[in-house]
Amino acid sequence: MTETLLANSKVPVGELPALLFPALVDTLIMVGIVMAIVVLVGVPLGAVVHNLAPGGLFENPGLHTVLSWIISVGRSLPFLILMASIMPFTRFITGTNIGIAAAVVPMSLAGIAFFTRIVENSLRSVPPSAVQVARASGGSSLQIIRTVQLNEAVPSIIGGLTINVIAMIEYSAIAGTIGAGGIGYVAVTYGYQRFDQGVMLATIVILVITVAVIQLIGDALVRFTTPHRRLAHAV
């Protein structure tokens, strides 16, 4: 009897596009909102953490250690545990523990911790001589960060941003467990709970294609920016 009900509840192949396309749009919206927050916070925070380190523009080893430890904690927690542990905070911010709004909070926190470290590591690759020249020219700390450090690290930051976007797509699938919508929610509700292998396979294919396209775009942007940065540095 149960097997019959489950078989009857499976989504017909012809109805898959109507089910999956809106879910994909929800996923892209969710990830887009999160990545906007991640970039707006992660870039300046990464620059600050980098320059608080010994040898930085405004070095402060004590504060650098504290911020670095906080970032490491944020990166080390598995996303599902992070999402569950901050539910009271999420509810305080959004007024709910379900839906896209509730997923954006933990995804943003996880993404910021990840991207901040990427930016910090990218800035370490900037030649110290370039910073020294900018300092000798009388550039302010803000000018040096913006025109020298971040400018030189653009290809590396873009590469890291690509990885971060892909990670957020994976997190959005996990967020489907709290009814956040998107491909993850469809996979859990239809593919897992209803044992609909057709839906599960379709969601896997969509996620693989989406990640592949994002990786291709990211790689193309890295290739596009690297020669220009190298040429500008050589001149």
UniProtKB/TrEMBL annotation:
<protein>
    <submittedName>
        <fullName>ABC transporter permease</fullName>
    </submittedName>
</protein>
<feature type="domain" description="ABC transmembrane type-1">
    <location>
        <begin position="24"/>
        <end position="218"/>
    </location>
</feature>
<dbReference type="InterPro" id="IPR051322">
    <property type="entry name" value="AA_ABC_Transporter_Permease"/>
</dbReference>
<keyword id="KW-0812">Transmembrane</keyword>
<feature type="transmembrane region" description="Helical">
    <location>
        <begin position="198"/>
        <end position="222"/>
    </location>
</feature>
<dbReference type="GO" id="GO:0005886">
    <property type="term" value="C:plasma membrane"/>
</dbReference>
<feature type="transmembrane region" description="Helical">
    <location>
        <begin position="92"/>
        <end position="115"/>
    </location>
</feature>
<feature type="transmembrane region" description="Helical">
    <location>
        <begin position="171"/>
        <end position="192"/>
    </location>
</feature>
<keyword id="KW-0472">Membrane</keyword>
<keyword id="KW-1003">Cell membrane</keyword>
<feature type="transmembrane region" description="Helical">
    <location>
        <begin position="66"/>
        <end position="86"/>
    </location>
</feature>
<dbReference type="InterPro" id="IPR000515">
    <property type="entry name" value="MetI-like"/>
</dbReference>
<comment type="similarity">
    <text>Belongs to the binding-protein-dependent transport system permease family.</text>
</comment>
<keyword id="KW-1133">Transmembrane helix</keyword>
<feature type="transmembrane region" description="Helical">
    <location>
        <begin position="20"/>
        <end position="45"/>
    </location>
</feature>
<dbReference type="InterPro" id="IPR035906">
    <property type="entry name" value="MetI-like_sf"/>
</dbReference>
<dbReference type="Pfam" id="PF00528">
    <property type="entry name" value="BPD_transp_1"/>
</dbReference>
<keyword id="KW-0813">Transport</keyword>
<dbReference type="GO" id="GO:0048473">
    <property type="term" value="P:D-methionine transmembrane transport"/>
</dbReference>
